[in-house]
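Lab channel / #folding
Pinned by the channel admin:
"Please post every new chain as: sequence first, then the structure tokens as a reply. Keep commentary short and put observations after the output so the thread stays searchable."

First post following the new format, from NK:
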Amino acid sequence: MIKEKLELLPHLPGCYLMKNSKGTIIYVGKAKDLKKRVVTYFNREHTGKTKVLVENIATFEYIVTKTEEEALILELNLIKKHDPKYNILLRDDKSYPYIELTNEKYPRLLVVRSHLKRKKNTRLFGPYPNAYAARKIVNMLNRMYPLRKCRILPDKECLYYHIKQCLGYCIHDISQDVIKQMNDEIVSFLKGNENSLQKTIEEEMYKASNNLNFERAAEMKSLLEDIATISKRQVIDLNDNIDRDVFGYASDGAYISIQVFHIRGGRIVERESTLYPLLDLDEEALTYHICSFYDGNNLKPREIFVPDIIDTKAVSKILEVKVINPKRGKKKHVLDMAMKNAKIGLEEKRELENRNEERSYNASRKLGEILSIDNLSRIEIFDNSHLFGTFSVSGMVVFIDGKPAKKEYRKYKITSDKVDDYNLMKEVIYRRYHRVLIEKLDAPDLIVVDGGKIQMEAASTTLNMLGMNIPICGLKKNDRHKTSALIYNEVEIPIDSHSNVFHLLERMQDEVHNFTIRYHKDIRSKGALESVLDNISGIGAKRKKELLKRFGSIEKIKEASVEELSIILPINVAYELNKYFKDEKKIQ
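Reply from TO:
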């Protein structure tokens, strides 16, 4: 059937949709010549992920477009709509932190990730290479400038006002001229002008030293050191102040490494190269990456530099940004740097990827061979936890091709009064796979329960009731509570403890156990916290909720200082709660 369809393909631009035996779209691509491109999947030998993709193609469809540009737009829309399995491999969902100076009467300085939810005219600076660097800058500026700290203005002043890190916007009408001066200095610093702020801090340091206020002088010295650390970023002198992103790439036929440089105010923030399996031509893979890069939380710059394999007009039209292929001078030098870094990233990450491939993907396939499951890819693993029948929870983790898919993890708070292992497993299996049926989610190729025959029987009974046929296996432990064998179709299958399959099972078991235990502790902690907070006057239902939301557990609240607690609580209640925990510790 595929051979016949290949003969009918036209020599025209368009998109192709690869489908598996279930009719599910597993990959979407575009081509300026559909026949030439699609035929390459079937008339030659492939390796790695491309080989796996081709093995799973049962049929394909195609859509003809007038131009290659239309094909690119259609491809992006089809991928968004169908979220194909193998296109997901080529997507980097990482979002980068920005610093926001809010557009409010009394501004705040925040670290944010989702710029798409920000208000209009808000001022965003970044992206920053990591959240730690962004938080360090925000903390430093908040110490230097008495900006508003609270999300909602309280009825009276808080601790920040008393330690002179806030002007008391809740009790004073602060002049907009004062606020504008602070804003201008902060914006100047965040745009790369550290000299003005350094000079101000130095003057304050010498003044404090002359007045024998050595504690204040030491604080100012620490701020100067922070600025020096933050400023150690490479400067690219392009004689302008234009925000740019620079995309470089390197490929070896099996993988493509993509490097992105963010240039802001003449400063370059180097991003780690991203390594993808190469399922398409270099130009198709890089074009898709660039166009999808700005779908998430990454701000579009004024200009984008790309290699000469990219159709700059098509990408520019889609992103509504100026896209350039520099040919000479300093701009070409920046692009060459990105290309060089991508090549280095390819060499380093390819070696790591090859090792991981043996340890994860091949181990997953080997497990499939042992259990006679063809193309074993998606595995869902369950574990339960409770304390003498209370705080009962279950956790599910997902491994795809031997690697954890953390966005697919799920937590379940058990509602049944019957909390033995059998009924716990029945409830969580029913809730999970009833939802899979109703919402038409991806069903796993294998279910693993971290337990023996009782849990397997509960899972099997529930799946039969739902009319689903999914293979189930259990993990048998030895006397030392270590996994020693698989239980599958009522047969015990020993696993070599030195094999990659064993290490994969061990990783999955540890992952689901730790994930479930963390949730269980969180539930227990919140339950204990409710009773503790009932002992403190001035903490009602609303403040309990705010404390839980901010700190998450009783242990974190115990560790919190009065200053941290006073962000939510009135200062006297914060002191009372802090004292309560200190007294409790003395008794213990």
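NK: DSSP finds 20 helices and 20 strands in the chain.
TO: also worth noting, Residues 252 and 346 are 8 Å apart (CA to CA).
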